[in-house]
Amino acid sequence: MATATPVLVDCDTGVDDAIALLYLLAHPEVDVVGITSVFGNNTARTCALNTLRVLELAGREDIPVAVGSENPLVGEVTYLATHVHGGDGLGDTGIPPADESALSPLSATALISQLAQQFEGQLRILAVGPLTNIARAMDADPAIVSRVRDIVFMGGAADVAGNQSAAAEANIIHDPEAARAVLSAGWKATMVPLDVTMTEILTDDDRAALVAANTPVSTFVAAITDLYFDGYGADSFGHRCSPCHDALAAAILTGEVVPEVMPLLHVEVDCTDGPGRGATIADTRGRWKGFPDQSGGNCRVALKTDGSFPAKLLARLGA
Ligand code: BDR
Ligand code: CA
User: Are 217 and 175 in contact (CB under 8 A)?
Assistant: First the structure.
């Protein structure tokens, strides 16, 4: 692991978060050095316990898991995505709960700050839940922005509809104020929105390949995606399948997926209380010129990938 890149994952584990973690843990050029949980797909505590289950499966109980924010910066949680990820956050397959005593005694913000110092200039952050922990960590320790190499986050909808509302994607609408704080803080940031994650699709044939591979990891992923496939079939695609949200962001971080279009753009978050709340307003007017980087842009935005990620993901998961 000497040359592997240190990565901190901030997540709301969650079916697709679990897959993203397993993808990263299987990647030889990545060293997952810490994981922080946030409310979203479930409570931050349940998401942390789900993370412990994933680490047990991967034999990586050495990685610290810290419980993070249970509420957004402003107001209270409005919903948890149990309708998508199951009541337990992992597809309701009856996996036994993890042992709480394995959780880190640190808060999520303290762990982020500690790792940013320990791996100054090298640490990369993959954020695949609401951005609350990252915003709180910046508030507690503003130096993390210059200490961390970059942040890649799954969230937003640049030029497509939202998924939690007509305008907003789930991770952003859970905490628009946090997303706005992160986007205006000067991070080297990459946004992986629904524009691309909804185009990288796992099919029932892919699930069958996971079942056939019959490894602990492939069997786990096949099990936790069953309910998830039903949900996306009913709500979005009309047939059983699932988009690769969080794992695609992980693969863009590692460089295994290189988006065909990923310009530097100016992105603002709608923090009003109207129907646009949580929308990511990305300035995509450069499309007619082939998307040159935009002066004053605050974020690189993945706008097009080639659809080949599911095959790469299956290979990393042993199928
Ligand atoms: C995002 O919302 C969550 O439900 C998923 O884990 C993903 O991070 C997709 O909108
Ligand atoms: Ca997530």
Answer: no
